[in-house]
From TrEMBL:
Belongs to the DNA photolyase class-1 family. GO terms for cellular component: chloroplast nucleoid; cytoplasm; mitochondrion; nucleus. It comes from Capsicum annuum (Capsicum pepper). It catalyses: (6-4) photoproduct (in DNA) = 2 pyrimidine residues (in DNA). One of its GO terms (biological process) is circadian regulation of gene expression. PROSITE patterns: PHR_CRY_ALPHA_BETA. Residues 6-144 form the Photolyase/cryptochrome alpha/beta domain. GO terms for molecular function: deoxyribodipyrimidine photo-lyase activity; DNA (6-4) photolyase activity; DNA binding; FAD binding. This is (6-4)DNA photolyase. Binds 1 FAD per subunit. FAD binds at residues 258-262, 299-306, 397-399. Its EC number is 4.1.99.13. Its cofactor is FAD. Keywords: FAD, Flavoprotein, Nucleotide-binding.
Length: 540
């Protein structure tokens, strides 16, 4: 076996690409042998029969499939350079330490990751490597900026508004230098010793059955697919230059109204830095273009904003102990949660979006806004953490920092506090798709419902329901709440919670929250009683 210093290990986790991969370039430099490794982590991949959808304890099968496709693509790209992906299985920390020992590795390279799980894992591997004299190279290339640098610039705390983030961030240091977009050759793989190596497993080999055709995401994983989608997106210079979020049509599904590059950015099949430079080149070539926060470049900056706040905020992924999160007496109602999750709320716009999520693992950002608002502050008043868990499992682009950041935002727990502004589960979708084609596609039970009733089928006369072969309460559920009264109650509860947070300077105890819950329960009972009395008088 070669001497210690000339063997390198490239540890792939995210960053599943060859273009703009500084860790891979450094691993290849001056090395006699290079071992490209991916570890199948049982924690992430093993089937969990108790989960509410097919998949592991951490992820639905669509995202696992997307990851496997990304690994197959990476393996093919490595093979073209005379290498291949070494797929190992087990606890990644333990497996890596064994690799370092058995293969006499002198240089360990991997992309830096800000997620809590990877921070703990990397610490374990780094500790072993430093004791044994292995050189470590872990560059920041998953984001545009190093979140730690921005936090340092801001007096060791993360900026909590997008505008303050932009001021601190400035132009990325690498933005004016061409990025390396191709690797011409790699060192060969050395002796792999006693390791049980396999190719990239299929979902069946991991212990899953195949997904039904209509339950499978239409988006295929991998760097090749990412670069193809990018090329198609940037070919339309005018669309890129005029991109304006939050505009766009959340009901467009045959041709989505966005780039659908988010899952490729999540797994690092596409470099966010390369995407940034492509957009920048287009903006230089056109007379006028939109600007952050609404432009396409602005979307990449939002991504970095959430990464930075998440990295610098302890307990970012929960309400308790999270200093930037309002303490709110959310309901713990598993029945309402299940109705929302399983497309049984009785509001077709909401149920169609949740069906698209379950089947495709993706939906438009405004569709995400609609269902997140409905579950939390708009109608059901269920805890944002519960909705976050469902998104985290089912989205193929689920990203720890962005998913938590968006749920904090959309539940008015942090960043955005105008809780009186609610997405209507009826009129919001109707604005984009008055005929209800999106609903008809994802909820075929309603396909024959006339367009006057497609967003509120419970208002259709029974004769219309019979003709549409969809009886409300039998073939499709009745609404779980009355939107008007539920949204009023949500506003009232949030108003009380905000007042208490202000009074106690955010130091709200569990007892304080329970007191608010009891008070809300009493008020709700009184309101129900008043409502019943009014109805009674109508019939007397």
């Amino acid at each position: 076996m070669a001497a210690c210093g000339s063997n390198s290990l490239m540890w792939f986790r995210k960053g599943l690409r060859l273009h703009d991969n500084p860790a891979l370039e450094y691993a290849a430099k001056g090395s006699k042998f290079l071992y490209p490794v991916f570890v199948i982590d049982p924690h992430y991949m093993e089937p969990d029969p108790t989960a509410f959808s097919t998949g592991s304890s951490k992820s639905g099968l669509n995202r696992i499939q997307f990851l496997l496709e990304s690994l197959v693509d990476l393996d093919l790209s490595l093979k073209k350079l005379g290498s291949r992906l070494l797929v190992l299985k087990g606890d990644p920390g333990d497996v890596l330490i064994r690799c370092l020992k058995e293969w006499s590795i002198g240089k360990l390279c991997f992309e830096y990751d800000t997620e809590l799980y990877y921070q703990a894992l990397d610490e374990k591997v780094k500790t072993y490597a430093s004791v044994t004299g292995v050189e470590i190279f872990s560059p920041v290339s998953h984001t545009l900026y190093n979140p730690a640098d921005i936090i340092q610039k801001n007096g060791r705390s993360p900026p909590l508004s997008y505008q303050s983030f932009l001021k601190l961030a400035g132009q990325p240091s690498w933005a004016s230098t061409p990025l390396s977009t191709a690797i011409s050759s790699l060192p060969p793989i050395g002796n792999t010793g006693s390791f049980a190596l396999s190719g990239v497993p299929t979902v069946r080999e991991l212990g899953y059955g195949d997904l039904a055709e209509d339950e499978r995401t239409p988006f295929k994983g991998g760097e090749s697919e990412a670069l193809k989608r990018l090329k198609e997106s940037i070919a339309n210079k005018e669309w890129i230059a005029n991109f304006e979020k939050p505009k766009g049509d959340p009901s467009a599904f045959l041709k989505p109204a966005t780039t659908v590059l988010s899952p490729y950015l999540k797994f690092g099949c596409l470099s966010s830095r390369y995407f940034y430079q492509c957009i920048q080149d287009i903006q230089k070539s056109v007379k006028k273009h939109t600007s952050p926060p609404v432009s396409l470049l602005g979307q990449l900056l939002w991504r970095d904003f959430f990464y930075t706040v998440a990295f610098g905020t302890p307990n970012f992924d929960q309400m308790k102990g999270n200093r930037i999160c309002k303490q709110i007496p959310w309901k713990n109602d598993d029945e309402l949660l299940a109705a929302w999750r399983d497309s049984r709320t009785g509001f077709p716009w909401i149920d169609a979006i949740m069906t698209q999520l379950r089947k495709w693992g993706w939906m438009h950002h405004l569709a995400r806004h609609s269902v997140a608002c409905f579950l939390t502050r708009g109608d059901l008043f269920v805890h944002w953490e519960k909705g976050r868990d469902v998104f985290e499992r089912l989205l193929i682009d689920s990203d720890w920092a962005i998913n938590n950041g968006n749920w904090l935002w959309l539940s008015c727990s942090s960043f955005f506090y105008q809780y009186n502004r609610i997405y209507s589960p009826i009129s919001f979708g109707k604005k984009y798709d008055p005929a209800g084609n999106y609903i008809r596609h994802f909820l075929p039970v309603l396909k024959d419902m006339p367009k006057e009733y497609i967003y509120e089928p419970w208002t259709a006369p029974i004769s219309v329901q019979r003709k549409a072969k969809c009886i409300i309460g039998l073939d499709y559920p009745k609404p779980v709440v009355s939107h008007d009264s539920a949204s009023k109650e949500c506003r009232m509860r949030l108003g009380e919670a905000y007042a208490l947070n202000k009074k106690l300077n955010g130091l709200v105890s569990e007892e304080d929250l329970n007191n608010l819950r009891r008070k809300a329960g009493n008020e709700s009972t009184i309101l129900d009683s008043v409502s019943r009395n009014k109805k009674q008088k109508l019939f007397d």
